[in-house]
Amino acid sequence: MSKVQKIAILVLFLLAIIFPIISQNDYFIHVMTLSFIWMIGVYGLNLLAGYTGYLSLAHAGFFAIGAYSLGLLTVKAEMNFWPALLLSLVITGVIGFFVGLISLRTKEHFFAIYTLCVGYIIYLVIDKWDSLTEGVRGLIGIPAPANIGPLSFETLQSHYYLVLFFLLLVVLIMYRIVHSLSGRTYIAIRNSEDLAQTIGISTMKNKLTVFVISTVIAGLSGALYASFVRFIGPDIGSIAIVFDFLTYLLVGGIGTLSGPIVGTILIVVLSQRLQFLQDYRMLVFGPVLTLLIIFYPRGIVGAVVNWTQKRKASVHQPIIRAKKLPEEQVKEG
């Protein structure tokens, strides 16, 4: 990581910390907190699709599993928030493990179609199992996070900082994974799974590991959403949610560490600015997203990275040429 990138990250971190103090507007703080929750979910999708090359369309289903697990454990089982949060992640990971065992035997568009069906099944289970999930009535009265000593999370600002903490934790975990041997293994599988197998990489084991991690991150996002909104319904497991995540990822930059943050912030800000268009907002988003995918398939962050790499190459090329020139003159002489 370059010095400029480190400074940029530090500046963004400081801005995120002082945002509630600067804004003093509950609506903006609420929107930013939701944005942080979406970012966590997008990071889970990015780890699987961006670094392993497997696009899961069941991501909204695991988001809903995390939300409903926390909601049911705290509302119906009356469990304390923090053990319930931990258990909801375990439940999401276990379900993700069994789904991954089957789904990862397929590849490319077959994998996407299979996970799309899994996501829809999860949605139907939540919608139709009235005795457990309350069906279309939704689950009401999900409590706020329990106090940790003197720390209370009843206010909007305190919840904002709690979600920000989890977002930073996920970013740190992603950074460590991507820059580790495991991260290089995932990228090798994305580039060529057959080649990865020939050099001795256990592709199924690594794919299953990253699939489970991805689902756990999605479950964390869903659990934080449930504790923040305090009410959840079957719609949080709909296919529209996973396409929102995918839009944030494609705009920001798939397979990049900062892509989920950039894409989510940009789309959320644009959505707020275009609220007057209501349902016609997609008339703006649709063509912009299409053009972005055509000309910048790695999103905004990917385009910036490519531009900086080309610029560095163009700067170093005359130096390399100048070093070679005396040797060429000697040969000509």
UniProtKB/TrEMBL annotation:
Keyword Cell membrane among UniProt keywords: yes
Subcellular location: Cell membrane
Pfam families the UniProt entry points to: BPD_transp_2
Domain of life where this protein originates: Bacteria
Alphabetical UniProt keywords: Cell membrane, Membrane, Transmembrane, Transmembrane helix
Topology in the lipid bilayer: Multi-pass membrane protein
Designated name of the protein: Branched-chain amino acid ABC transporter permease
Organism: Neobacillus driksii
Organism phylogeny: Bacteria, Bacillati, Bacillota, Bacilli, Bacillales
